[in-house]
Structures are given as C-alpha cells and as structure tokens.
C-alpha cells in the first residue's frame, strides 16, 4: 500500500521541492539564525553564547533609547499621515464627481508611484538642500530669508524634516484602498440619507467612516509594519544624524551589523522589532474589532 | 448654493494637494534640462537653452547599472512566475497528505518581516559564496516573490473545471504536461500581475543590492544614490540620470496598470 500511495503522491511533493528549497534556504534558515545569534556575539565566522547580554545592552544603550523614542514619533505620525491625507483626497475626489475628473485626479495623485522609491527620496534630499533646495529658495522668494535652514543638517529640524518627507502623503497604497472602498459604497443608501435631510458632513461621519473601519484597520496594521522596518529613507537622507537625532532601531541594527560587524547585536535588534510587530499586529486584530 | 460652494472649495483643495504632490517631479524634469550654472544663479528661471547634453552625459553614467538591474529583474521574474505557478497548481489540483500544513508553511512566510532576515540572510549568502554576485540578489528575491504567485495561481486554478484536466489525462498527458500545457497558458493574466509586482519591487530595491554588491556591479538604485553624492556638483546631470533610470518602471506600470493595482492591493490585503 505504502509504495503505491507514495508513488501517487511523489509527483506532488516533487513539484513542491523547488519552492520549499527556496523558502527554507532564504527565509526559514535565516530566521532561525536570527533567533539563535541574538544570544551570541557573532562576527559571521565564529560566535560565542552570551545569553541575554545583547538585549541587556540594547535597553541600557542611550543611542538605542533615542532611536526607540524617534521610532515612536515616526510610527505615530506615519499612521496619522496614512489615515488622514489619502482619505481626504479620496473623499474630495468623489465629492466633486464627474467620471473623467475623478479619473484625472486619481491618476495625478498616483503619478509619483511611477518612479522607484529611491528617486523620490533623492528628490526630497534636494528639496531640503540648504542652498539649492526648493524650500529655502521658496522662503527667499517670499522674503523670509531668516527662516531658511539646513533642514536635514540641524538637530532641531532634522527629525521633523523626515516626518514631513513625501508631503502631502497621498501617493500610495492607502489612497488606492480608500478610493476603491468609497467607489464601492452603496450609493442608494447614501442618496436616501441625503433625501432625508442629512448633509454631506453627516453622511461622511455617520456612513462613510463606519463603513471604512476595515480599511482603517488594514492601513493601520500595514503602516505599523512598514514604519518599524523603514530605514532606507533615513539612511539616505541623514544616516541617522546629525548626531543620533533621526536614527531608529532598524537603522541602529543596520549600523551594528554592517558598520561595526556586531552581527549578534544586530540580530537581537531584528528579533526585538519582529516581536514588537507581532504583538502590535495581534493587538490590532484583536482589539480594533470591526463589529459595528 | 452651499452644495455648490463646498464643491468649489473641495476642488480648490484637491488642486492644491495635487500641485504639491507633483511639484517635486516637475522640478525633477525642469532641472534635468537646465545647466548647473543656471540652477545656481537663477533657481526659478526657465532654462536659457535646453541642455539635452545632461541626458547623454547621464546615460553614460547609468547605462551599465540599468542593464544590471534589468538582468536581475528579468531572471527573478522568470523564477517567481515559474515557481509560483507550479506550486499554486499543485496546491489547487492535487490531493496529498500534509497539504494544509505545507501550504501554511509556505504562505506563512509572508508574515516574516524582511527586517528580521537582513542580517542572517547576509550570513547565508556569504556562506554560499554569493556576496558580490547577482545570485546573492536573485535567489533570495525569488524565494520571497514566488509567494504572491502561489496565492493568486492557487485561487485561479481551483476555479477551473476538473473535466479540462481529466480529458488531457485520458489522452495520456502526464502531470507536467497538464501544468505546462493546460494550466499555465490559462493563467497568463495572473502571471502578468505577479511579474509586474515582482519587477517593480526588485528594480526599486536599494538596500539589498547595496549590502550584497560592490560598486562595480551596482544596480540602478545604487548608481542613483552615488550620482547624488557626486551630484552636488551637477544637479542637472543627476536628475537626468534619475529620469533615465525610471523609464523601465514607468513603462512597466503604464502598460500594466490594471495588473499592477490588482496585485498590489491583493498582495497587501492577503498578507
């Protein structure tokens, strides 16, 4: 029995071998390595078991604590940016109506997504440039010379310059999610409410907002996950500086591993961020319930 | 009256938001045809003469990096599409022990944040001897990007009628024939979605190439960042370089808009 069944199934398993070979080698194996080596001092060649020392060092390291505080600012503002601005744009597009105009605006807002993300980052670096940057040039043009700044190079403005990156924060997945959801709403219900005397604001707060709760939830989760992992922007714009004013845990992880060959410490930060993501995602799914 | 008024304010706000959204990209184009000296002395002025030479100079700087990026993208897309559709086919049309568990094991990988694996993946690549090699990019990329294919292809293949496959089996077609000649041709639109999403993600990636590759093998994103470092001396040249390097993503998105948005939304919501 077992040989004939094995033959019957062997083709299925055989077909799955390539996919699993790839995910075991390049995903599961590295994850296991990360967990093991978060308890070691590791230079990629030799490793030495040091228990929880990496985690202890992490929580007593003032750079890491600054990074964690910065991360809180980044994540909270990232959520607000993703929840508010794309929603306002999507709502206004449906408010002014007209299929052609709707299409035109939607296309316009997602146009920046045509370019690789790194180009947008480099463009914003230019916008913040103290000499030839758009912001300072604009200030000079309107006579506010005294307001000009080395936006990314000054500790007082650097972190807010990174938060402000990408203003008005519309081009992106949240906008497309809202746009699709609003477009798919039951128009008859809304018309009925309008006839009964509800004004636009009431329709928005009493009908649109409750209807969009699932979208808010998805966007919040996705934003938290990407916010905690996002450091390419920081790496290119400021490298975490000046000082440590814009750094975040992911950036510190990168520097620990690839800057000073502390791969064990880097792994410990990676594992910690992973656990934070896990807990926050769980919390989101559990407590931001959709039952309205 | 108030309705008309709110429509007008609404339109005005939208137009302002749209302008602010697009301004950086207007500047990108504007400066790419402007002479460096002119940018420095007259920021707002129209270019006296349109300096197309920025483009030919930038082309010489970025062309090999674009070639490298395209090579990595194309090999990755082929790998992702083949593996994704093959495994998607097996999970949709075959019955075998441990199927549910294996599927969770495969798709569950989407829950692993890439940040967690950066450091140990580099160790893995180093152990395999793939540092400063395109394989060090391509193989991990395939591992991650095949999953969207598995997800979409499984759903699609499950919707096909069994008679389609039964007829081919009676005609003596083996399983590989069923996959490659019956299933695969039917799911080309889905593979287009997978291919486009994969292409864009790989082409735009900066971090992993920067970690794995040395300068002489650089991808476009690496070239763009180093253009910027030297670009303090010539903004027009670097901006022209950014535009040239963005042509592949622009073309892929414009010709595959429908598939692109579909894939992005499904990928995000399902993972």
TrEMBL record, chain A:
<feature type="transmembrane region" description="Helical">
    <location>
        <begin position="103"/>
        <end position="124"/>
    </location>
</feature>
<comment type="similarity">
    <text>Belongs to the binding-protein-dependent transport system permease family.</text>
</comment>
<keyword id="KW-0812">Transmembrane</keyword>
<keyword id="KW-0472">Membrane</keyword>
<keyword id="KW-1003">Cell membrane</keyword>
<feature type="transmembrane region" description="Helical">
    <location>
        <begin position="159"/>
        <end position="181"/>
    </location>
</feature>
<dbReference type="InterPro" id="IPR035906">
    <property type="entry name" value="MetI-like_sf"/>
</dbReference>
<feature type="domain" description="ABC transmembrane type-1">
    <location>
        <begin position="68"/>
        <end position="284"/>
    </location>
</feature>
<feature type="transmembrane region" description="Helical">
    <location>
        <begin position="72"/>
        <end position="96"/>
    </location>
</feature>
<dbReference type="InterPro" id="IPR051393">
    <property type="entry name" value="ABC_transporter_permease"/>
</dbReference>
<keyword id="KW-1133">Transmembrane helix</keyword>
<feature type="transmembrane region" description="Helical">
    <location>
        <begin position="12"/>
        <end position="36"/>
    </location>
</feature>
<dbReference type="Pfam" id="PF00528">
    <property type="entry name" value="BPD_transp_1"/>
</dbReference>
<feature type="transmembrane region" description="Helical">
    <location>
        <begin position="209"/>
        <end position="228"/>
    </location>
</feature>
<dbReference type="InterPro" id="IPR000515">
    <property type="entry name" value="MetI-like"/>
</dbReference>
<keyword id="KW-0813">Transport</keyword>
<feature type="transmembrane region" description="Helical">
    <location>
        <begin position="263"/>
        <end position="285"/>
    </location>
</feature>
<protein>
    <submittedName>
        <fullName>Sugar ABC transporter permease</fullName>
    </submittedName>
</protein>
UniProtKB/TrEMBL annotation, chain B:
<dbReference type="Pfam" id="PF00528">
    <property type="entry name" value="BPD_transp_1"/>
</dbReference>
<feature type="transmembrane region" description="Helical">
    <location>
        <begin position="101"/>
        <end position="122"/>
    </location>
</feature>
<feature type="transmembrane region" description="Helical">
    <location>
        <begin position="134"/>
        <end position="157"/>
    </location>
</feature>
<keyword id="KW-0472">Membrane</keyword>
<feature type="transmembrane region" description="Helical">
    <location>
        <begin position="69"/>
        <end position="92"/>
    </location>
</feature>
<feature type="transmembrane region" description="Helical">
    <location>
        <begin position="12"/>
        <end position="33"/>
    </location>
</feature>
<dbReference type="InterPro" id="IPR035906">
    <property type="entry name" value="MetI-like_sf"/>
</dbReference>
<dbReference type="InterPro" id="IPR000515">
    <property type="entry name" value="MetI-like"/>
</dbReference>
<protein>
    <submittedName>
        <fullName>Carbohydrate ABC transporter permease</fullName>
    </submittedName>
</protein>
<feature type="domain" description="ABC transmembrane type-1">
    <location>
        <begin position="66"/>
        <end position="256"/>
    </location>
</feature>
<keyword id="KW-1003">Cell membrane</keyword>
<comment type="similarity">
    <text>Belongs to the binding-protein-dependent transport system permease family.</text>
</comment>
<feature type="transmembrane region" description="Helical">
    <location>
        <begin position="239"/>
        <end position="261"/>
    </location>
</feature>
<keyword id="KW-1133">Transmembrane helix</keyword>
<keyword id="KW-0812">Transmembrane</keyword>
<keyword id="KW-0813">Transport</keyword>
<feature type="transmembrane region" description="Helical">
    <location>
        <begin position="178"/>
        <end position="203"/>
    </location>
</feature>
């Amino acid at each position: 029995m077992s040989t004939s069944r094995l033959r019957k199934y062997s083709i299925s398993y055989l077909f799955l071998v390539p996919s699993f070979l790839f995910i075991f080698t390049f995903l599961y194996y590295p994850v296991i390595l990360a967990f093991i080596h978060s308890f070691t001092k590791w230079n990629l060649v030799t490793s030495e078991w040091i228990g929880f020392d990496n985690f202890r060092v992490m929580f007593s390291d003032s750079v890491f604590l600054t990074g964690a505080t910065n991360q809180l600012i980044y994540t909270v503002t990232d959520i607000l940016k993703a929840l508010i601005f794309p929603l306002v744009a999507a709502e206004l597009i449906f408010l002014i109506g007209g299929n052609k105009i709707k299409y035109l605006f939607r296309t316009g807002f997602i146009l920046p997504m045509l370019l690789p993300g790194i180009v947008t980052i480099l463009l914003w670096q230019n916008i913040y440039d103290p000499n030839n940057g758009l912001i300072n040039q604009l200030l000079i043009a309107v006579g506010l010379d005294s307001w000009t700044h080395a936006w990314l190079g000054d500790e007082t403005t650097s972190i807010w310059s990174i938060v402000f990156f990408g203003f008005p924060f519309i081009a992106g997945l949240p906008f497309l999610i809202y746009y699709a959801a609003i477009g798919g709403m039951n128009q008859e219900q809304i018309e009925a409410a309008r006839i009964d005397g509800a004004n636009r604001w009431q329709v928005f707060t009493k009908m649109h907002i409750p209807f969009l709760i699932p979208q808010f939830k998805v966007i919040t989760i996705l934003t938290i996950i990407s916010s905690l992992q996002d450091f390419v922007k920081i790496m290119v714009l400021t490298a975490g500086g000046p000082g440590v004013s814009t750094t975040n845990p992911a950036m510190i992880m990168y520097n620990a591993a690839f800057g000073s060959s502390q791969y064990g410490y880097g792994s410990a930060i990676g594992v910690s961020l992973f656990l934070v993501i896990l807990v926050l995602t769980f919390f989101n799914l559990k407590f931001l319930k959709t039952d309205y | 009256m108030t309705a008309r008024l709110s429509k007008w304010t609404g339109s005005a706000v939208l137009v302002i938001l749209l302008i602010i959204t697009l301004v950086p990209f207007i500047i990108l184009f504007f400066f790419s045809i402007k002479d460096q000296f002119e940018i420095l002395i007259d920021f707002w002025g129209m270019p006296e003469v349109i300096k197309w030479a920025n483009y030919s100079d930038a082309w010489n700087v970025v062309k090999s990096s674009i070639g490298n990026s395209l090579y990595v993208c194309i090999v990755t897309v082929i790998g992702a599409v083949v593996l994704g559709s093959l495994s998607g086919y097996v999970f949709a049309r075959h019955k075998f022990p441990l199927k549910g568990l294996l599927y969770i094991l495969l798709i569950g990988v989407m829950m692993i944040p890439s940040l967690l694996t950066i450091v140990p993946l580099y160790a893995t690549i180093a152990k395999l001897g793939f540092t400063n090699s395109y394989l060090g990019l391509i193989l991990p990329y395939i591992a991650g990007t095949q999953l969207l294919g598995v997800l979409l292809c499984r759903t699609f293949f499950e919707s096909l009628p069994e008679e389609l496959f039964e007829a081919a089996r009676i005609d003596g077609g083996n399983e590989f024939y069923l996959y490659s000649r019956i299933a695969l041709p039917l799911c080309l639109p889905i593979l287009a979605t997978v291919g486009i999403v994969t292409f864009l993600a790989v082409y735009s990636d900066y971090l992993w190439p920067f970690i794995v590759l040395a300068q002489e093998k650089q991808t476009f994103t690496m070239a763009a960042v180093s253009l910027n470092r030297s670009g303090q001396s010539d903004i027009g040249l670097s901006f022209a370089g950014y535009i040239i390097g963005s042509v592949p993503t622009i073309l892929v998105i414009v010709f595959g808009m429908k598939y692109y948005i579909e894939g992005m939304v499904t990928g995000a919501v399902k993972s």
